[in-house]
Amino acid sequence: MIFSKILIRWYSNNKRELPWRQTKEPYYIWLSEIILQQTQVKQGLPYYISFIDTFPSVFDLARADEEDVLKLWQGLGYYSRARNLHATAKYIADQLNGEFPNNYKDLLKLKGVGDYTASAIASICFDEVTAVVDGNVYRVLSRYFGIDTPINSSKGAKEFKELAQELIDKKNPAEFNQAIMEFGATQCKPQNPDCNICPCNKGCIAFNKNTINSLPVKIKSAKAKKKYFNFLVLISEDGKTILEKREGKGIWQNLYQFPLIETNKNIDDKTLKTLIKAHDVIKGMPFELSLYNKDVVVHKLSHQHLHTKFWVVNVNKLLVEGIPTNQIHNYAVPILIGNFIEAFNF
C-alpha cells in the first residue's frame, strides 16, 4: 500500500475529534490554523472556542477593537499573530465582502498567511492539491525517508515541500494533509514515539536504521540574548496603579505593562532607588520600595531571555492618571505580566 493511503487509513481510525474538523468554512479553518501556529492543540483549543463564541463571523472579528482581540489572545504568545489576524479580518470584511480567497496563490497574499497556512486552507476548504509542510510533516518525512537535510534551511524547505507535493493524494488532498499532520502530532511524536505499532514502520528508514532520535535535523539558532527588566508596580493610597501601552514595533506591540526600567545586569534595591528618582513616574516624590519576587523570573522567548524583577512602589498619589487596581484585569498584557497580576492578587 502506498504511503498516502496508509496515512489516510490510519487517520480515519485515529483522528481526534476537533471542532474545526467538522466544517469546511474558511473563516473557522483560517482561525484554527493561525491559533495553532507554534501552539499545541491542547493549548489552542480553548482559545479557538473563545474566539468563535466571541466573534462568530469574520465581520464580528473585523469590527472588534484591537485591544479586545489582544486580550482574548493573552497567553498564546507571538502577539503579531493576533494583530495580523485582526488586520486580515478587516481586509476580508471590508475589501472582499467577507469572502476568503479560494486558492493558494491568493490566500498567500493575506497578512499573516504563509505557505503552510495557505496550503491548509486551500486544500481543506477548496480541495486544491497543495501540500502542507509544518513541524509535524517535517518530522514524518525526514524519518520515513531518512532525510538529514536541515529543515530550517532554504534547501530543506524546498526539498520537503517538493516531496510532500509528490506524495499528496491528488483525489483527496484535504484528508491527506490532515492525516500527515495528525500522524506527526500523535504517532510520530518528537520524543519516544511507539514505532512498534506504527503502520509505516516497515518502510521507515529511521526506524530500521535506529536514527529516530536524530531526525529531523535542525541548524542550531543563535544563543538567546539576556535582558534585565525591572517593572515598577506603583500603588497609590487611593488604590490606583499605572499601566503603559507599548508603542512601536516589537513582540508586545500595543500590549500593556507596568513602567519599565531596563538595565544591563541584575541590580539591587539601592541601585534601583537611584534610577527611580529620575523616572517620570516619581519625579522626586517620596516612595517605599520592596522586591516582590525574591527569585528572578526568567521569561524565555525565542530570541531573548528576560530576567525579570517586579518592584512594588508605594506612593501617596500618582503623578499621572492611573487606573483602579480592581480594573487591571481588563487590559491586554503579556503573559509575563499576566502571571504576576494573578499571583499578586490585586
Automatic annotation (TrEMBL):
The keyword DNA repair applies. GO terms for molecular function: 4 iron, 4 sulfur cluster binding; 8-oxo-7,8-dihydroguanine DNA N-glycosylase activity; adenine/guanine mispair binding; metal ion binding; oxidized purine DNA binding; purine-specific mismatch base pair DNA N-glycosylase activity. CDD domains: ENDO3c (cd00056), NUDIX_DNA_Glycosylase_C-MutY (cd03431). It catalyses: Hydrolyzes free adenine bases from 7,8-dihydro-8-oxoguanine:adenine mismatched double-stranded DNA, leaving an apurinic site. Residues 35-186 form the HhH-GPD domain. Binds 1 [4Fe-4S] cluster. Its EC number is 3.2.2.31. Keywords: 4Fe-4S, DNA damage, DNA repair, Glycosidase, Hydrolase, Iron, Iron-sulfur, Metal-binding. Pfam families: HHH (PF00633), HhH-GPD (PF00730), NUDIX_4 (PF14815). Its cofactor is [4Fe-4S] cluster. SUPFAM superfamilies: DNA-glycosylase (SSF48150), Nudix (SSF55811). InterPro entries: A/G_AdeGlyc_MutY (IPR005760), DNA_glycosylase (IPR011257), HhH-GPD_domain (IPR003265), HhH_base_excis_C (IPR023170), HhH_motif (IPR000445), MIG/MutY (IPR044298), MutY_C (IPR029119), NUDIX_hydrolase-like_dom_sf (IPR015797). NCBIfam families: mutY. Adenine glycosylase active on G-A mispairs. MutY also corrects error-prone DNA synthesis past GO lesions which are due to the oxidatively damaged form of guanine: 7,8-dihydro-8-oxoguanine (8-oxo-dGTP). Belongs to the Nth/MutY family. This is Adenine DNA glycosylase. It comes from Flavivirga rizhaonensis. The gene is mutY.
